[in-house]
Specification:
Elements: H1 8-15, H2 17-20, H3 23-44, H4 47-63, H5 65-71, H6 74-92, H7 103-124, H8 135-142, H9 146-157, H10 162-169, H11 173-190
Length: 203
Amino acid sequence: MTGQPPDDRGERALREPSEVMPPAFWAFHQLYHQAYFEYAHVQLGDKDAADRLVDATFVFLAVIWQRVTAQGNLEAFAWTLLKERVASELEVQGREAAALETLAFERAVRAACEPILDSFRQEFRAQVTELEDGLGLYQAMAQLPERQFDVMVLQFALGFTTKRTALVMGVCQATVRSTRRAAKRKLATDLELAIAEDVDDEE
């Protein structure tokens, strides 16, 4: 279903919002469009490509809106749809998701690394001297599992709160917090830092 291109019903819906689409669709669009664009831009490294991809994603959601809203977790469905489309676009380009050669990805990871480094400096003090250039953390970030990477980029690089990250990904806040803790534990393990089980920067 998600691999099929949207038909012109969605395009008509976006041209004639008041006559075709319910207010709930536009509320969803307003709430998540910018977040989807920022994430797609991180992955694709091209603002125009990210803009086109996100617009096409919302067109497709407009086409299937009634079916999707009847199924339950709209946020999780839409987030999965966006990520599938990003992955498909990268595959067409012969690249993998979060490709290291993508400049936007590099900027996002480096943006995330500094606040993570600050957190690690406070927790580990003498242990983090070898991380001062951020290279080890940068490489470890790039190897995180997909959900952990998403949480770290959304929160540390894009500055999303736990609540907004949960809304965008269609999961509960507890899942975001546990995923963030797991990501930080993995980063610490990869960087050979001794981290306590309950270490996290709770909001």
